[in-house]
């Protein structure tokens, strides 16, 4: 839920916010930037609402960050906000990716380009870790979710069961239990 005294952004403002996030972020750190922008800086969403939206975005098919942008846009400005947020996170970054790809093909023979990419990857890992730690601090410690996490880990890492079938099976059980408890 947004703060009552904070005006909601327009679709154009959402487009510009997401374009800036998409153009200034690398790798998996985008959700961390979104948390900072919409929860901590602008106070448009509570941390709980943001993390609930992130859970929804991760459960849906497609790119998590794009799903999250659509969810935030819809939450703050309806359908027009969802469309503007999607366009903002995808289009400017896609244009830059094509330009960078062309430039990288030209400079890929130089060692400095590989060093720069290693640095960008390290920054993205750090942002993803910070987001994961923020989410982990807020999750209530209950036995069933911990058991689901452990069962998924054992099934995939130890028993080498296929990830798709493991997530479908254990995930369905987890959703059914959560629904029953609600």
Describe the structure.
It is found in: Cell membrane. Keywords: Cell membrane, Membrane, Transmembrane, Transmembrane helix. Pfam families: Chromate_transp (PF02417). Its main location: membrane. With 182 residues, the chain is an all-alpha fold. The protein folds into two domains: 129 residues, no CATH class; 42 residues. Helix 6 runs antiparallel to helix 7. The longest helix has 44 residues. It is globular, with a radius of gyration of 19 Å. The chain starts with 10 loop residues before the first helix and ends with a helix.
The H/E string reads: HHHHHHH
Number of strands: 0
Helix content: over 70%
Radius of gyration: 19 Å
Overall body shape: globular
Strand composition percent: under 5%
Largest sheet: none
How far is the N terminus from the C terminus? 20 Å
Based on secondary structure, the structural category is: mainly alpha
Q: How many domains make up the coordinates?
A: 2
**Uncertain segments of ≥5 residues (pLDDT<50)?**
none
């Amino acid at each position: 839920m947004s703060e009552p005294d904070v005006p909601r952004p327009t679709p154009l403002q959402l487009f510009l916010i997401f374009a800036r996030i998409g153009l200034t972020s690398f790798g998996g750190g985008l959700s961390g930037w979104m948390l900072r922008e919409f929860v901590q800086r602008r106070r448009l969403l509570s941390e709980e609402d943001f993390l609930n939206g992130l859970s929804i975005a991760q459960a849906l098919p497609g790119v998590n960050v794009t799903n999250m942008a659509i969810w935030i846009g819809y939450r703050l400005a309806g359908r027009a906000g969802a469309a503007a947020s999607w366009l903002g996170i995808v289009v400017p970054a896609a244009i830059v990716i094509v330009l960078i790809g062309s430039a990288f093909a030209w400079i890929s023979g130089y060692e400095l380009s590989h060093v720069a990419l290693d640095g960008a990857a390290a920054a993205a890992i750090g942002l993803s870790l910070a987001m994961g730690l923020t989410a982990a601090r807020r999750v209530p410690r209950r036995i069933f979710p911990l058991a689901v996490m452990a069962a998924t880990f054992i099934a995939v890492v130890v028993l080498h069961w296929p990830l798709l079938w493991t997530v479908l099976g254990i995930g369905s059980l987890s959703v059914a239990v959560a629904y029953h408890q609600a």
